[in-house]
Give the backbone structure.
Amino acid sequence: MKATIINIGDEILIGQIVNTNASWMAHKLNRHGLAVDQILAISDSKEAIFKALDKSIPDSTVILITGGLGPTNDDITKQALAEYFDMELAFHQASFDNIKQLFAQYDRVVDDNYEHQATMPVGARILINKTGTASGMWFEQKGKHIIAMPGVPREVRYLMKYEILPKLILELDTPTILHRTISLIGKGETHLSELLEDFEKGLPSNIKLAYLPDPVVGTIRLRLTALGNDAIVLETQLEHHVRKLIPLLGTMVFGEGKDSLESVIGKLLKDKNYTLGTAESCTGGMIAQKITSVAGASAYFESSVVSYSNESKVNLLAVQPTTLVNHGSVSEACVREMAKGAQQLLGVNCAIAVSGVAGPTGGSPEKPVGTVWIAIAVEDQIYTQKVQLGKERMQNIEQTSTIALNLLRRFLIGDL
């Protein structure tokens, strides 16, 4: 059973806002057995709306529309839909009462614009929006459900949760769709596809494997999707195949579901009763930011030193001036001393130290842009690694942070 999402708004097309409604709605529909076949972003015009409906209705059981239901002249979705479905517009008392109730909370008076907004297509099912002034509209045509909502994300989520999804579930015989995701780092999509070729061939026809790489961060997720009618049977199937998949990937796997690299590291540090600090040059504090984005990080994260200049490396982290003269700041010798200095200065068991040429300038023939040295110190042990990344500054910073965190994870699980 297929669904289409149509997001109306010139502000989406010109990049003025991010279309968060589409991703949120697609996720919710998928969880309830409705596979989103297409997502359309269109302009605020009757012609665009008609064209999108003509394209979507033949192949989709459910069409969800957002945007263009406000009280101003540029909000033409309601008029366009009434014309498309050959319906008259008439004053709708329940919608007007809802507007008055919302305005009363702020001691405001409803003007003529909002009385006009309370006119609704006669014959459509009207969905009262208790979080805003624009009601939703539900049209039915030959077994197809076309539902329009305002574009404000808060209002979309209210109507979906309380007015749309519960009724769709009752009216449609939707299948069950379940997902399991595994997060990993260390190999690219092509290598993984070759590694898992036999595993994929052995999957039953109702389970599919998808590769979801994040090239900026440098991680990849594998998603198993199962389709069927019995949730318990599907869950058992998925669990069986997940347990077959993970051993094939080994220590590349760092988590399942919503696990992040930093949350997994936090659990490892707490289990070992270790504390962590960072000494960051080229990453400018991003490693610390990732670690502290996890709730409860104060139990194991102590502090960070952003030692961007050579002077700060010497004065704060006790890097020897001769080290900088003889080897430079982007060197194994430097990050080793940075990691040791961070342990001593911050009083931590574990330290991550990074120094590199983030770019786009500053490189040399010996140390081109993207050259990074990383040191991981755990108690009295230190592991170092040199990586050669690309030319994009922010991508280098992101990838360095991810690689450094993964090295710490591998150190903590005994994989280095």
The first helix runs from residue 10 to 13. The mean pLDDT is 95. The chain is about 40% helix and 25% strand. The longest strand covers residues 219-228.
